[in-house]
Amino acid sequence: MSSKILPSGEPAAPVLWRVVDSAGENKAGNNRAELQRAVDQARREAYAEGILAGRQQAEEQVRPAVAGLAQVLQSLASLREDIREQTNQELVRLAISIAGRIIHREVSIDPDALSGLVKAAYLKLQSRELNRVRMHPTLEVLVRKILEQSGSPKNLVLTPDPALGPGEVFFETSQGLLDASVDTQLREIERGLIDRLER
Asked: Given phi > 0 = left and psi -120 to 50 = alpha, else beta, which region is 95?
């Protein structure tokens, strides 16, 4: 507020004082408080809406990743089963391979090791007309001895064949050929074991 010094004798102009309504001040204060409450309420609502929108957006972004992860886990589970199955088959093949090497080594040292195989094959064929037996030359004495002990016919022809391996024996009948070779028997065992594992 400005002031002015008047020369003496000059009358002072009347001052009009503004009348302030205390109720108006209270109204303005109340309006400010209400406005502040409304602003605070709007902030809280906007914050809650922002949180909700952020969660929804995050869920939308994460959903494909979760679906992809579920698919990967499912494929890993099936892969594990496939690997187990393949491993079992490989173990059977390895066991048969080891057995084959051991049997072939035994046969090369002692041909009598095949006597059980030759007997079993002959017994399987007893009801059929047996014409000829082909075998590796080292097995001729063993096969002759087993067939004589088993009561084979006198006209049965034994044919040593140097082209055959040490563990190969073939029985020829009028109905066909029976392969009683070590490798054939091992393959049959392998097939049977793998079939059993696949069940």
From this structure: alpha
Low-confidence ranges of the chain (pLDDT < 70): 1-4, 6, 12, 15, 17-29, 108, 111, 127-128
Is pTM beyond 0.90 here? no
61 within a domain of the structure (yes/no)? no
Report in angstroms the alpha-carbon separations of 3 from 7, 12, 13, 71, 159: 13, 12, 12, 87, 148
Tally of domains within the chain: 1
The residue range of the domain holding 162 is 102-198
- Complete edge-to-edge strand list for the sheet that includes strand 169-173: 157-160, 130-135, 169-173, 176-179
CATH code: domain of residue 117: 3.30.2320.30
Whether residue 33 is contained in a domain is answered as no
- Residue 73 belongs to some domain of the structure: no
What DSSP letter does each residue of 84-146 carry, written as one string? Answer: HHHHHHHHHHHHHHHHHHHHHHHHHH-GGGGHHHHHHHHHHHTTS-EEEEEE-GGGHHHHHHH
